[in-house]
Write a structure and sequence with these properties.
This protein is an alpha+beta fold. The protein is built from 2 helices and 8 strands. Strands 1, 2, 3, 4, 5, 6, 7 and 8 form an 8-stranded antiparallel sheet that branches. The longest helix is centred in the first third of the chain and has 22 residues, at 2-23. The radius of gyration is 18 Å and the shape is globular.
């Protein structure tokens, strides 16, 4: 019966690993657009997006818009360390500065004066670069994860 207990334990451990992997992700910062908050090479623990709308001030990992070129210094996260993103691929790490209903900050393209549209957020880097000042509001559905803490 020991093999049954060991097998059950291994099965439970594997199931727990799958659940953790589905809920959490580890990302590495590439670039300096989030300095001084996040430095190039920093490793971050992030909770995968659960459908909960982000809050103002959250740092999020979101899909890079496919039609925007990557300017120098943009903070990107790559699925394969050291691999450059291909067109329409890659991730950004940005801070949410406005959520639906908040006033749209000045200088954000593709928006009418008034509140941030439902289903979108305004995201900025700590430094100007590839963010909502360039591509406009980001659809909430492009958010992959919310950063919880820096690991190193």
């Amino acid at each position: 019966m020991t093999w049954l207990t060991a097998g059950t334990g291994l099965l439970l451990l594997a199931a727990a690993a799958v659940l953790v992997r589905r809920r959490w992700t580890v990302v590495r910062v590439r670039g300096d657009s989030m300095e001084p908050a996040l430095h190039d090479g920093a490793v971050l623990l992030a909770r995968r997006w659960t459908g909960r709308p982000p809050h103002r001030g959250d740092i999020v990992v979101l899909r890079r818009p496919p039609v925007v070129a990557v300017p120098p210094g943009a903070t990107l996260v790559h699925s394969a360390p050291g691999a450059p993103p291909r067109a329409g691929e890659g991730w950004l790490i940005k801070r949410v500065v406005a959520v639906p209903g908040d006033p749209v900050p000045p200088g954000v393209p593709n928006t009418a004066p008034g509140p941030v549209p439902q289903g979108t957020v305004i995201v900025y880097g700590e430094r100007p670069g590839l963010d909502s000042r360039l591509f406009g509001p980001a659809p909430i559905g492009t958010i992959h994860a919310t950063v919880v803490r820096a690991l190193r």
